[in-house]
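An instance noted here:
***
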Amino acid sequence: MTPTTVWTKTLDRHLADLLTGGEAGLESGAELEVRHPAGEVAFRAPLARHHRVEGTSLVWVRPIDDGYVPDRSEAGQPPYAFDVDVTRRRALEFTTARIDGATIRFVLTTGQHAVVRPAGPDTLAELQRWDTYYYTVLDAETQRELDALDHDP
């Protein structure tokens, strides 16, 4: 696909498919990698399964920060947990975006390059731990707040 300077329905469908795992559902997902202009990796993390578009060149996503094994001395603790106050949304404000196979490539307004692609084995494992936490621990109101991507908790 030729790079575009505005978000399109095709990009939106492709991103939604990557995030939700497409036909594979929760057995697949997406990761975000951001590189500095010189090429070194600045950031890599799995992405939660939702996004929000604002205007024509801004996409909000929620990278999943590392979870942790909670203190098992308290009854009812999940096997793996996340701090939703740390799992903050990220803006991908871009000058160009394009689909490249299964990947979406962005040139960000900062000069960095971002790639949203199918999650690799390590990031997929973390995403699946997030899914378990999200669907079994978080209440519906917290889920709605996280899904909206319009503020950080």
